[in-house]
């Protein structure tokens, strides 16, 4: 087991900068998600750490040892591929045994280690099957068992749940997390699914156009995004734009919005405030329960009922704000109704204009 | 209903006519190899005389061994070189790769008569001359593109992530190839090998150009024998070859399902 340090890593393909000066410290035993849209460089970064491709410049260390010029087969990593990449000509047990077998381990050791790994992923009885006889979820587990049976220093997962349907994906998220905790392996997980990143990882790195946009625990990135991109890519956010007052912004119509967190900016600069849809309270009257609250008035243009919650789209000064309300009662607001939106400054993040 | 039945009947008829067209001449030839009359005369009278005299025909026997030897060596060389070339074309990007791939097809399309003439002139020019070694070189050159095309087609169905997965598990290049890639392309390699064998064993034109009177292959020897005067020994040796090669084909098809995924 070992941590992974990536420092000032750059990699270009022709004129395209796939990775641009990326530095991340993956702590020993942590579960780390690399999140970003397609083309953001997250898979390139994972393949660099794996050793399928070498960087133009920068350093990669696994357990303190520089590996950026070490080929993949010598890096002692475990990898789970998007489409599982199980060997079709081998049984499940032989698939899992592959890494130990190419290393020349004794047959008896291989057999017991393979059984242990299959038991860990709850496929103890299916060793004799062929990959094509398994369901998607089972193949996923075999791929995981195959990757961890060699006791790698780091486990790399390339969108491993992407091919599964929604219900199975949630099961596998829990399962993957359980197994990761059980063996305590440093895990780096590439995904474009923000929910997956939020629920599974200890830390998230958001990438965009080959650069690391923001990095930290899920709560921190969610509560204090440093850019509009981070705010809208990880979760939903309403973005209000204006001139900064130092502690908030002033909208074009003069309304002041107070922010409780975020950047410190010189007054007068262009800036924006981000607020999560579920942090906004929506009401028809202008009761003044909290004198410090940010207040905006608008008109409901659309309502989407989703059972346990409702999403309201509120038109205000040419901008549509999104508000999510838990349906704790049966009272609902109607489309077309005039409403007052209120949220606390603590739920408001000041972001420098980009 | 009536039209369906007529169509069904026509379909069956078509299959039988096709099979007859393909196999009737061979069956007649095989039967005549057991007939007393050397001139295809009926009624049929059973004899094993032609097989017995075939056994005495040293020229025909030595030509048969030459053909087998050359075909087997050609197959081995082409399978090894062709599979290696296909893997290289599959794995690596390099300058002129497309050009190289395009160059594979003309040798298949160029008439053997022309290739044979060119080889004869070239082999004389470089001092190899004619003979069994020249024939072997010629056959390898003719058969190699077939193997590369067949193995490459099979490789198109191979997922490159499998090689990456094997490497990530610590396998070196040799282990990746022998334990992951080769098992997958094996049906293609065997099909390519059969092609190479057939191209060599059937080869008349190029062999004819490159053989010398003492050193020749079976097709050339059969041609020479027919020109001198036909004997049913030719029927006998052909029958043996057909039986052996059909048995080989059926065995191969039994153990390697061609075209199938598994």
UniProtKB/TrEMBL annotation, chain A:
Protein name listed in UniProt: Spermidine/putrescine import ATP-binding protein PotA
Record-linked NCBIfam families: potA
Pfam families to which the protein is assigned, alphabetical: ABC_tran, TOBE_2
Record-linked SMART domains: AAA
Residue ranges of domain ABC transporter in the record: 4-234
UniProt xrefs under InterPro entries: AAA+_ATPase, ABC_SmlMolc_Importer, ABC_transporter-like_ATP-bd, ABC_transporter-like_CS, Mo/tungstate-bd_C_term_dom, P-loop_NTPase, PotA-like, Transp-assoc_OB_typ2
Family per similarity comment: Belongs to the ABC transporter superfamily. Spermidine/putrescine importer (TC 3.A.1.11.1) family.
Function: Part of the ABC transporter complex PotABCD involved in spermidine/putrescine import. Responsible for energy coupling to the transport system.
Reaction catalyzed: ATP + H2O + polyamine-[polyamine-binding protein]Side 1 = ADP + phosphate + polyamineSide 2 + [polyamine-binding protein]Side 1
MF annotations from Gene Ontology: ABC-type polyamine transporter activity; ATP binding; ATP hydrolysis activity
Entry EC number(s): 7.6.2.11
Organism annotation: Mesorhizobium mediterraneum
Quaternary structure and partners: The complex is composed of two ATP-binding proteins (PotA), two transmembrane proteins (PotB and PotC) and a solute-binding protein (PotD).
Keyword annotations of the record: ATP-binding, Cell membrane, Membrane, Nucleotide-binding, Translocase, Transport
From TrEMBL, chain B:
Stretches assigned to the ABC transmembrane type-1 domain: 64-252
Any single Gene Ontology cellular-component annotation: plasma membrane
Assigned keywords, A-Z: Cell membrane, Membrane, Transmembrane, Transmembrane helix, Transport
Pfam families named in the record: BPD_transp_1
Chief localisation class: membrane
Subcellular location(s) per record: Cell membrane
PROSITE patterns per record: ABC_TM1 (PS50928)
InterPro entries, per database record: Bact_Polyamine_Transport, MetI-like, MetI-like_sf
Membrane topology: Multi-pass membrane protein
Tagged with keyword DNA-binding: no
Record-linked CDD domains: TM_PBP2
Transmembrane segments: 12-34, 70-90, 102-126, 132-153, 184-210, 236-256
Superkingdom of the source species: Bacteria
Gene3D superfamilies listed in its UniProt record: MetI-like
GO BP term, example: transmembrane transport
Family per record: Belongs to the binding-protein-dependent transport system permease family. CysTW subfamily.
Name of the protein described by the UniProt record: Peptide ABC transporter permease
Classification lineage: Bacteria, Pseudomonadati, Pseudomonadota, Alphaproteobacteria, Hyphomicrobiales
